Amino acid sequence: MPPFDHPDVWDGHSTIVHEIKSQLQECKPDLIVVALGGGGLLCGVLQGLHEVGWGDIPVVAMETFGADSLAECCRQNKWTEIPAITSVAKCLGARRVTEKAFQWMPNHPVTSVVVQDKEAVSACLKFANDHKMLVEPACGAALSAVYSDEVLTRLQENGMIPKTTEKVVVIVCGGSGVSLNLLQQWKSQFNL
């Protein structure tokens, strides 16, 4: 069984939303952005949103091309898999998302967004400079929603997020499979 495909995993991840609500108190986010690999984090966040009464908050699930298994399900309108992980975002990559993630799609405002590896790595580098923390390109995909004007503009122009979105929560995850050497390699690979 994949590590992202179990209710216990989703229950654990749902507590992130409870923590967000306790920290924001009366302030409700306009949007939540998550990185997507196998879908465990997405399922937990969606579950948590419904548990705290925030079932109307849209979620953007970010993937990179070559690790875009949820986007492929959306394109085909069925639970399916991609042939291989070809993105540099391999750590969170899954050829097939958990079926539960795909089942959530019609029951909650979830938008699947795919970005280039270059955009994800660029966001990793900017996040490292701002916060002195290393994250993997899968997380960089989520961070690109706020670090890349091109990604943000594309999301707004395509109606994926409101143009007036002000309170955005990006769930930052995934740092065990990255190093300064890898970031430097990717920086060179993508001419950043």
Question: What does this 3D model show about the protein?
Answer:
This protein is of the alpha/beta class and 192 residues long. Helix content is 46%, strand content 10%. Strands 3-2-1-4 form a four-stranded parallel beta sheet, sandwiched between helices. It is globular and about 45 Å long. The N and C termini lie far apart (38 Å).
Which range best describes the helical content: under 10%, 10-25%, 25-40%, 40-55%, 55-70% or over 70%? 40-55%
Q: Main β-sheet, in a few words?
A: 4 strands, parallel
User: Structural class, from secondary structure content?
Assistant: alpha/beta
Q: What is the topology, as strand order, of the major beta sheet?
A: 3-2-1-4
Quote the average pLDDT. 93
Strand portion: 5-15%
Radius of gyration: 16 Å
Termini Cα gap: 38 Å
The succession of helices and strands, N to C, reads HEHEHHEHHHEH
The count of β-strands is 4
How many distinct helices?
Answer: 8
Low-confidence stretches: none
Give the overall form.
Answer: globular
